[in-house]
């Protein structure tokens, strides 16, 4: 394609549309892109020679398109120019209007400044007009203002005569008149109304006084009570409607109701003398339910329902009583009777059917959900006070009973007997009655108090038993030393054994239901110890009579004559005849211990080595004497009532077999059999018995003693009683001891 052709293909610019240099980089770039796109299109269309024939058509078409676009652009630009022209005109009009408004405002400002100056000149006139209006109102109210002092005096008279509703109406009228003067006088207080404040306070006090005597007025003058309550209620609504500061007459009325009720029943400080508390509480038991009944029947109808009069009464009485009791407990300590009475009354009577729990009272009188009259600390304090004072009294009573009993022991007369012939004294019954009565009565109060008193009673009984035992020891010592010889020493000891039996058989009655099963164990131990001590003292008295007789056993005279044991049996029988005055099982225990003591003395005498058999004849005599004596003792104690199964005399028959054995070589078997029957027999006892035989050589003795260790061990038996372990035996010669014996 030649240069001429290329020039023809360049788009020509329309006249007047010469393109100056680009004003923005974006415009220049857009023109370059447009020219590039046009060249690309033209090169694509006229690439082939046969298409050059249509070049004129393409040129005319592009010329038409360019003219159309220019016409449209001119139309749009013309439209925009017309809009701009219109806007400029409107802005010019607005500027003229703003300038006119500014001039008008300046003129108005000047006029206002002139009017303000004129107003300042009218201020005195305005003040004169306001004063004229006030004077006009005062002139209209002047007749009523002149009547204010008389109205105040009249209202005071109405208050004094307890015409409370009329007085309140007059007070309201005076207050309304005062309010009417406030607006004209711009809040200025006139001297004539200075008495309204004290007048309102006097009416409030009258309302309080009437409310404070509500119980009495409900019975005597209910109209006055109703008037007082209505005044308080109406005034509360009136002050609330006017949004004025409340006078709290309603609250003061309720408070006066409570204070009057408390003053009636608890106004005097409670400082009851000993024993007077029960009467005061009994009076309250009657008065408080009656007061609640009056409140429900008479006071409640005189008051609005929201007063909840019965509930108010119940809570007020409860709180007043609670405060009064707290003051009482903070004062001087109460006695035992008063502490018990107060505990029982507060825990059982007060909420019981006789008082606040009465079915005649409505649910509003329920105080069970309020704080209890007595706190846990109060109950603890009262229980401790009661137990401490009761313990002191019980100690004194038991000591007095013991002193009276001890004083009887040195009398010239024998102890008294009951209808069955047993020694008897009222002391056990007195002791048990004192303790049982205190335990029983505390069950009326609370389980904790009963447990406290039960523990105290058992402690005091244990102390009493120890004192009783000490008194017996002194009684026995004085009798033995001759300082205070008792004419009937043994009978009074036996009487004390009956006392112990009576206490032991009845002590279980002190155990309340639900108490720990082991609580009586210390007392039972003390009773058993007392029984053993009494038995020991009785047996010591018997031993004192029998010891001179056993001093002659064994002897040649004993072998030839039964007189010595006859004397023993005679004295024992005479002594034990007194046991019939002792109740079983203590009598059987005494007989068993007396029989054992006689046998022990018999064994002790045999072990002393006073007699050594000279031959087989004397050994036979000893064996026969042992058999005879065992039978005699068995018959003696069977006659006294002791069962044969518990007797210890059969030990003499076992010794007889040992002494009567003819072949010393068989002594080992006999000793082993004796060990099986009496496990507490020792080598010393066997040696003493072999010495009594008088025919045992050293080898035979050693063989017999060795059988104690070589033989089978005795089987344990709970029914066996100690015998040989209580009998001292003389220490054998060293040559007769085993290598492992006690003297080795």
UniProtKB/TrEMBL annotation:
Organism from which the protein derives: Enhydra lutris kenyoni
Keyword list, A-Z: Cytoplasmic vesicle, Exocytosis
GO cellular component: exocyst; transport vesicle
Gene designation: LOC111153079
Main location group: cytoplasm
Subunit-level organization: Interacts with EXOC2, EXOC4 and EXOC5; may be part of the exocyst.
Localization: Cytoplasmic vesicle, Secretory vesicle
InterPro entries: EXOC3/Sec6 (IPR010326), EXOC3/Sec6_C (IPR042532)
Recorded family membership: Belongs to the SEC6 family.
One term of GO molecular function: SNARE binding
PANTHER family: EXOCYST COMPLEX COMPONENT 3-LIKE PROTEIN, EXOCYST COMPLEX COMPONENT SEC6-RELATED
Region named Disordered: 1-28
Main function: As part of the exocyst, may play a role in regulated exocytosis of insulin granules.
Single biological process term from Gene Ontology: exocyst localization
Name by which UniProt lists this protein: Exocyst complex component 3-like protein
Positions with biased composition (Low complexity): 11-21
Domain of life of the native organism: Eukaryota
């Amino acid at each position: 394609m030649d240069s001429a052709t290329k020039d023809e293909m360049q788009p020509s610019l329309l006249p007047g549309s010469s393109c100056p240099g680009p004003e923005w980089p974006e415009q220049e770039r857009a023109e370059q892109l447009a020219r590039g796109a046009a060249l690309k299109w033209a090169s694509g269309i006229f690439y082939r020679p046969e298409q050059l024939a249509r070049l004129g058509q393409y040129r005319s078409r592009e010329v038409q398109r360019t003219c159309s676009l220019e016409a449209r652009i001119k139309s749009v630009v013309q439209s925009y120019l017309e809009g701009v022209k219109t806007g400029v005109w409107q802005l010019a009009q607005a500027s003229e209007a703003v300038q006119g408004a500014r001039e008008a405002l300046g003129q108005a400002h000047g006029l206002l400044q002139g009017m303000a100056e004129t107003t300042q000149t009218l201020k005195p006139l305005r003040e004169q007009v306001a004063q004229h209006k006030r004077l006009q109102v005062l002139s209209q109210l002047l007749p009523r203002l002149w009547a204010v002092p008389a109205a105040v005096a009249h209202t005071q008279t109405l208050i004094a005569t307890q015409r409370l509703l009329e007085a309140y109406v007059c007070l309201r009228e005076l207050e309304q008149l005062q309010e009417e003067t406030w607006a004209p006088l711009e809040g200025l207080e006139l001297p004539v109304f200075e008495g309204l404040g004290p007048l309102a306070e006097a009416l409030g006090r009258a309302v309080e006084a009437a409310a404070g005597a509500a119980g009495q007025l409900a019975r005597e003058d209910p109209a006055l009570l109703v008037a007082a309550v209505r005044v308080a209620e109406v005034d509360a609504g009136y002050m609330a409607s006017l949004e004025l500061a409340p006078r709290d007459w309603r609250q003061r009325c309720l408070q006066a109701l409570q204070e009057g009720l408390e003053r009636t029943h608890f106004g005097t400080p409670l400082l009851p003398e000993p024993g007077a508390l029960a009467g005061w509480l009994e009076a309250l038991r009657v008065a408080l339910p009656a007061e609640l009944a009056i409140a429900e029947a008479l006071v409640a109808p005189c008051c609005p329902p929201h007063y909840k009069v019965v509930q108010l009464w119940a809570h007020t009485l409860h709180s007043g009583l609670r405060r009064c009791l707290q003051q009482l407990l903070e004062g001087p300590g109460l006695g035992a009777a008063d502490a018990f009475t107060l505990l029982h009354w507060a825990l059982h009577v007060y909420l019981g059917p006789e008082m606040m729990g009465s079915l005649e009272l409505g649910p509003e009188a329920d105080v069970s959900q309020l704080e209890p009259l007595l706190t846990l600390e109060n109950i603890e304090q009262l229980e401790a006070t009661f137990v401490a004072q009761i313990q002191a009294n019980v100690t004194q009573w038991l000591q007095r009973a013991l002193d009276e009993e001890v004083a009887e022991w040195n009398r010239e007369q024998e102890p008294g007997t009951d209808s069955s012939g047993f020694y008897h004294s009222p002391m056990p019954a007195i002791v048990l009655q004192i303790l049982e009565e205190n335990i029983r009565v505390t069950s009326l109060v609370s389980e904790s108090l009963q447990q406290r008193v039960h523990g105290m009673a058992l402690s005091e009984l244990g102390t009493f038993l120890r004192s009783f035992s000490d008194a017996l020891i002194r009684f026995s010592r004085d009798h033995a030393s001759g300082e205070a010889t008792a004419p009937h020493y043994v009978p009074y000891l036996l009487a004390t054994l009956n006392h112990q039996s009576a206490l032991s058989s009845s002590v279980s009655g002190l155990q309340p239901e639900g108490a720990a099963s082991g609580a009586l164990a210390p007392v039972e131990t003390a009773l058993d110890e007392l029984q053993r001590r009494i038995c020991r003292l009785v047996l010591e008295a018997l031993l004192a009579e029998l010891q001179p007789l056993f001093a002659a056993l064994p002897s040649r005279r004993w072998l030839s004559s039964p007189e010595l044991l006859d004397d023993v049996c005679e004295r024992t029988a005479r002594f034990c005849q007194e046991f019939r005055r002792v109740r079983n099982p203590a009598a059987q225990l005494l007989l068993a211990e007396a029989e054992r003591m006689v046998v022990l003395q018999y064994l002790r005498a045999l072990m002393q080595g006073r007699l050594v058999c000279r031959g087989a004849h004397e050994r036979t005599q000893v064996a026969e004497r042992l058999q005879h004596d065992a039978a005699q003792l068995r018959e003696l104690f069977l006659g006294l009532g002791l069962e044969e199964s518990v007797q210890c005399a059969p030990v003499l028959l076992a010794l007889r077999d040992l002494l009567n054995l003819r072949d010393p070589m068989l002594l080992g078997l006999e000793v082993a059999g004796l060990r099986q029957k009496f496990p507490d027999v020792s080598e010393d006892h066997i040696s003493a018995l072999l010495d009594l035989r008088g025919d045992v050589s050293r080898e035979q003795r050693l063989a017999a003693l060795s059988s104690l260790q070589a033989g089978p061990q005795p089987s344990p038996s709970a029914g066996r009683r100690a015998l040989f372990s209580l009998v001292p035996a003389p220490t054998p010669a060293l040559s007769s001891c085993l290598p492992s014996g006690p003297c080795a």
